[in-house]
Design brief:
With about 280 residues, this protein is α/β, with parallel strands linked by helices. It is built from 12 helices and 8 strands. It starts with 7 loop residues before the first helix and ends with a helix. The structure holds 3-methyl-2-oxobutanoic acid (KIV).
Length: about 280
């Protein structure tokens, strides 16, 4: 597989050729290394880290400092995979200038390849401003987890005429403002497929069905590492929670039984040095 860095141009070309895009979330260096090695095209350093890594109830507690730290670790790990930083709640809701400064922090401090935020029509000008700065912006329509309070929960979006129209108009506005790709979260498959055909930029589904240009999942769902909540659109490929539990239990019993550490886990020294120590300090 070609190890050339994935850029906005690669993504654009893949959509034009009808090639499917792959994306996963990551929050740390070792996971990002494996995602990069596996040939996944893009990583989202999602604010979902507030929940899956930090144990918070929702994504609203993610901060700029938290996100920059996770983004920097992920970006250091990726040779080919394009890294997108998720702008946390409060980092893009105020003025354009503050939004631009926060987007710039991700590029200068964390060295990511682009940013993503849960932009409503109110934030379209901010999308344009960040693109004008030269930073790649990914849009995000459908379910906005940062709006959990106003939405009354994490629910599928776009099932009524009003909400379907909202998904459509927001996606068109984001494309017009310069977004290079758009995430569709928790929207009916037929709607996501329809909008995908209407747009020039690629669409990335996380609960948007197979008709999008690419797919995204939260890595902790894929690995079965987040037990508190599993959306119906996600697929658990492995049971790392069980594997971790079994491993930690085995370690504990091996320590209790004296099986670990074995000889090969123990540093050696010369008999002469040990004899000299015993001679000086007496037997144990
Ligand atoms: O934070 C995240 O992981 C996200 C995806 C669910 C789109 O924003």
């Amino acid at each position: 597989m070609e190890r050339k860095k994935v850029t906005v141009n690669t993504v654009k070309q893949m959509k034009a050729k009808g090639e499917r895009l792959t994306m996963l979330t990551a929050y740390d260096y070792p996971t990002a290394r494996k995602i990069d090695e596996a040939g996944i095209d893009m990583i989202l350093v999602g604010d979902s880290c507030a929940m899956v890594v930090h144990g918070h109830e929702n994504t609203l507690t993610a901060t700029m400092d938290m996100m920059v730290l996770h983004c920097a670790a992920v970006a250091r790990a990726c040779e080919r995979t394009m890294v997108i930083a998720d702008m946390p709640f409060g980092s893009f809701q105020y003025g354009i200038e503050e939004t631009m400064r926060n987007a710039a922090r991700f590029v200068t401090e964390a060295r990511v390849d682009g940013v993503k935020f849960e932009a409503t029509p109110f934030h379209i000008e901010k999308t344009r401003a960040i693109v004008d700065m030269g930073i790649a912006v990914m849009g995000h329509v459908g379910l906005h987890p940062q709006s959990v309070g106003a939405l009354g929960g994490l629910k599928v979006q776009g099932k009524s005429i009003e909400t379907a129209r909202k998904v459509m108009t927001e996606a068109l506005a984001l494309q017009e403002a310069g977004a290079f790709a758009i995430i569709f979260e928790a929207v009916p498959g037929v709607l996501a497929e329809y909008v995908t055909k209407k747009l020039d930029v690629p669409t990335i589904s996380i609960g948007g069905g197979p008709g999008c240009s690419g797919q995204l999942l939260v890595t902790y769902d894929v690995l079965g590492m987040f037990e508190a909540f599993m959306p119906s659109f996600a697929k658990k490929y492995q049971d790392f929670s069980q594997l971790m539990l079994d491993t930690f239990k085995q370690y504990r019993s091996e320590v209790l039984e004296g099986v670990f550490p074995a000889d090969e886990h123990t540093y050696k020294m010369s008999d002469e040095v040990m004899e000299a120590i015993i001679k000086e300090f007496g037997p144990a």
